[in-house]
Amino acid sequence: EAGVAQSPRYKIIEKRQSVAFWCNPISGHATLYWYQQILGQGPKLLIQFQNNGVVDDSQLPKDRFSAERLKGVDSTLKIQPAKLEDSAVYLCASSLARPSTDTQYFGPGTRLTVL
Amino acid sequence: AQSVTQPDIHITVSEGASLELRCNYSYGATPYLFWYVQSPGQGLQLLLKYFSGDTLVQGIKGFEAEFKRSQSSFNLRKPSVHWSDAAEYFCAVGLNTNAGKSTFGDGTTLTVKP
Q: Do β-strands A110-114 and A88-95 pair in parallel, antiparallel, or remain unpaired?
């Protein structure tokens, strides 16, 4: 079966610009996650969706980050405006069902560099 | 809030030697615990997980981990390391109300000497 797809794989932008990342989860997976992984650190959960509803977004910097999951399938994560400290790898993961004890499958990530 | 500490930033072992990676967690209830591996150019992959029951958990690629509640630890072990095991390893703790809301440690990088 196809894995979690993410695009783009790499993105370089200037600070204060906007950027968007796309994620397509494994078919049939109800739960979708976005993580931020800064170099030298473990992934940090930004937002968790169950179908098209938000389960947890307590660590999402809502003044500049937004995410949506239309129709409970694909998801986009947007940063507007970007700051230097947003340079990181953004990982998308999906799992089969609630209560999310199922295995999370991770995509390859999008590496963002903010100059 | 939960937290995870991986005390060893970098470990080097010889091929064929045994391996133990340490993980200590902080959480006010029975945790859900995970070990992931991240190889260069590849995504994170789940090695094993503990939710309840037997405290010795078997995973993929010959790895195992033992949950010790008294020590708040979940150390990862492998009896004989292969060169392909060189990677970064992350321990994570999830809420018992939402295992998906996991907090990750900062990882341990494993180097395997020939």
A: antiparallel
What whole-number distance in Å separates Cα of residue B84 and Cα of residue B81? 8
Check residues B7 and A97 and name the one with the higher pLDDT.
B7
Pick from B46, B99, B104: CB nearest A100: B99
CA pair distance A102, A31, nearest whole angstrom? 9
For residue A100, the one-letter residue type is S
- Distances from the Cα of A87 to the Cαs of A4, A20, A35, A79, A105, in angstroms? 22, 13, 13, 11, 23
**Cβ contact (<8 Å) for A42 and B100?**
no
Q: How close B71 comes to chain A (CA, Å)?
A: 22
**In the structure encoding, which two tokens stand for residue A42, read together?**
């473990």
CA distance B60 to B26: 25
Work out whether strand A110-114 and strand A10-13 pair parallel, antiparallel, or are unpaired.
Answer: parallel
Cα–Cα distance for residue pair A43/A89, rounded to 1 Å: 9
Which residues 6+ apart lie within 8 Å of B27 measured at CB?
B2, B3, B93, B95
Span B4-50, pLDDT tens digits = 999 999 999 999 999 999 999 998 788 899 999 999 877 899 999 99
Q: For residue range B8-20, what is the model confidence (pLDDT) as tens digits?
A: 999 999 999 999 9
Q: Which tokens in the block code for residue A25?
A: 């989860």
